[in-house]
Amino acid sequence: MSQPTYVTLSEIQSAAARISGAAIRTPLTQLPGTSIWIKAESAQPIGSFKLRGAYNTIAQLTPEQLRLGVITYSSGNHAQGVAFAARALNSKAVIVMPDNAPQVKIDATRALGAEVVFVGPASSARKLKAEELSAAHGYTIIPPYDHPHIIAGQATCALEILQELPDVDLILSPVSGGGLLSGTATCVKQAAAAGLAKPTVQVWGCEPELAADAKESFDTKTLVEWPAALTTRTIGDGLRTQSLGQLNFHHILKFVDGIVTVTEDEIYAAMRRLLKDTDLVPEPSGAVTLAAALFHAHQLPAAAKTAVILSGGNIDPKLLESLK
C-alpha cells in the first residue's frame, strides 16, 4: 500500500456535525469506587457505536448511489448501523452476515428494513459475497471499518470523551477490524497536537487473547490474519474479525500507544461488574475495555483518569440471564 492519507481532526469535527441528527451524544459515567469512566455507546439508537461511521459514510453518497442501495458485511452491529442509516436516508440496505451471528442482531437488522444474506463464519467470505452482490446490482459497499469516512465517524466518540473529560489520561477502545480504535487514537493524538487534549494522553486497544490478531500485527508491525477457526472461539462476537483493515492498521501504527489482551473469564467478570454496579447492559465485545482496566492495569500506563469505551449493548438475552 502506498503512503496512506490520514484522517484529519477537521474531518472528524465535520463528521460530528453530519451525524448529530442520527447518532446521540452518549453518556460518560464514572464506575462507582474507581477512577474509570464508561463511555456508553450502548445508548445509541442501535445499541452500538457503529451508527457513527455508517451514517457518516452513507450521508456522503450521491443521490444515484442512494437510489441503487447499499450493502455491507457484518456480524451484527455494523449491519444495524448501515440498516438504520439507509432507512433514515431513504436507501435500500443489504447485509451479508455470518450464519453464526447472534439471533438478537439478525432480528434487529431485519427490523430496520434490511435484507439479510447469510454466508459461513469467515469474515473473508462475507466480504466476497458483498462484492459479488455489489457488482451484480450496483450497490455501494459500506465497509465495516477500512474506509476514511468510517474512521472519521467512529472517531466522534473520542471527540465527545475529550470534551467531557478533558483531563483524561488514558482511553481504552476495543479493537477488531480497527475502525473504532484507529478513529479514537487519530482523534485524540491530533486533538492533543492542536492543544485540545493533554499532550500525555494515551490510547490503547483491547481485544480477547483468543482473537489477538491486532496485537500481533501491532507488535510485529506486520499486518497478520488469523483463521476464523481461532477468532470465533471468543464470546466477543463483535471482535472475531480475522485481520485489521489496511487503512486502520496504518492509523493504528501511527497513533495507538499499545494493545492489551484479556481472557474470556475477565470479559465475563467485567460484564458482571457493569451489571452489578451500573444500569448499563454490556455485550461481551464492549466489556473488553473494562476487563483491561480492571485486570491489566499493570500492563497499562499509570492513569488518574481512565475512559473505557463500552462499544455496544446488544447482548443475547440468554447470555444476559446467565450473568445475573
Features:
Rossmann fold; 324 residues; six-stranded mixed beta sheet; four-stranded parallel beta sheet; alpha/beta
What would your notes on this structure say?
With 324 residues, this protein is an alpha/beta fold. It folds into two domains: 9-48 and 151-323, Rossmann fold (3-Layer(aba) Sandwich); 51-141, 3-Layer(aba) Sandwich (Rossmann fold). Helices cover 46% and strands 15% of the residues. It contains 14 helices and ten strands. It has helices spanning 9-19, 50-58, 63-68, 77-88, 103-111, 123-137, 148-164, 179-193, 213-220, 228-231, 246-255, 264-277, 284-295, 317-323; strands spanning 28-30, 36-40, 70-73, 93-98, 115-119, 140-141, 170-174, 202-208, 258-262, 306-310. The strands form two sheets. Strands 1-2-10-7-8-9 form a six-stranded mixed β-sheet, sandwiched between helices. A four-stranded parallel β-sheet has the order 5-4-3-6, sandwiched between helices. The chain is globular.
